[in-house]
């Protein structure tokens, strides 16, 4: 097929099994070391796994141009910590929640009962990792932890925040300041990935619906 300097791929992993998907990812990265690869995909997990740099276009205008970590930082580096306890000691749970709100930059704390377990969800933003401080607060309690994990924003979260800004003002730019304001989307967008030498650029093209 020759030796093109620019290679355009449309949904290259569609219909492939997991092993084939991994092979295609590796092939794209290898080609991208010396060639420019434009990859069009609606599967944002594939973009995350393949790309280093992302450009998102909403309603014909660029609303983001950065690496994934840079995009997350623009939106405040929002994180979620989920703690599951096997016992419910109401007094200690209430004291724990109060300590979190008073001493740490917590945006929101919610609690859910799942059978005999209690699940506490903590939402916060910023570069600081507060897990050690949370462990320190729990160390002197009788609460029994059976699960503790932290989730960061995915590319899908970033994409939705930038393309579903309230009222569509400034084509998604308001989302950077307001974080994640959401509105039902009138247009379906697709993301294109541009891999240029050691960097993979992602371009989102707008697919207008009637």
UniProtKB/TrEMBL annotation:
Gene3D superfamilies on file? P-loop containing nucleotide triphosphate hydrolases
Question: From which residue to which does any coiled coil extend?
Answer: none
Keyword Glycoprotein found: no
Query: What are the protein's UniProt keywords?
Result: ATP-binding, Nucleotide-binding, Transport
Residues in Daunorubicin resistance ATP-binding protein DrrA1/2-like C-terminal domain copies? 68-161
State the PANTHER family in the record. ABC TRANSPORTER ATP-BINDING PROTEIN, ABC TRANSPORTER ATP-BINDING PROTEIN NATA
UniProt name for this protein: Gliding motility-associated ABC transporter ATP-binding subunit glda
Q: Which species is this UniProt entry from?
A: Plakobranchus ocellatus
């Amino acid at each position: 097929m020759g030796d093109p300097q620019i290679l355009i791929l449309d949904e290259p992993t569609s219909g492939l099994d997991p092993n084939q998907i991994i092979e295609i990812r590796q092939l794209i990265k290898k080609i991208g070391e010396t060639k420019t690869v434009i990859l069009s995909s609606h599967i944002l997990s594939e973009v995350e796994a393949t790309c280093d740099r992302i450009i998102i276009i909403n309603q014909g205008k660029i609303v983001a141009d950065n690496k994934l970590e840079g995009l997350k930082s623009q939106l405040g580096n929002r994180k979620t910590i989920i703690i599951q306890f096997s016992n419910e000691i109401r007094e200690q749970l209430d004291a724990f929640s109060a300590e979190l709100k008073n001493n740490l930059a917590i945006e929101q704390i919610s609690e859910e009962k799942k059978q005999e377990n209690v699940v506490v969800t903590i939402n916060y933003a910023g570069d600081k990792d507060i897990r050690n401080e949370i462990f320190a607060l729990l160390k002197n309690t009788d609460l029994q932890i059976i699960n503790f994990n932290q989730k960061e924003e995915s590319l899908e979260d970033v994409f939705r925040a930038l393309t579903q800004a309230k009222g569509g003002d400034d084509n998604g730019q308001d989302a950077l300041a307001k974080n994640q304001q959401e509105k039902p989307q009138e247009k379906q967008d697709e993301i294109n990935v541009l891999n240029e030498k050691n960097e993979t650029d992602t371009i989102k093209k707008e697919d207008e619906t009637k």
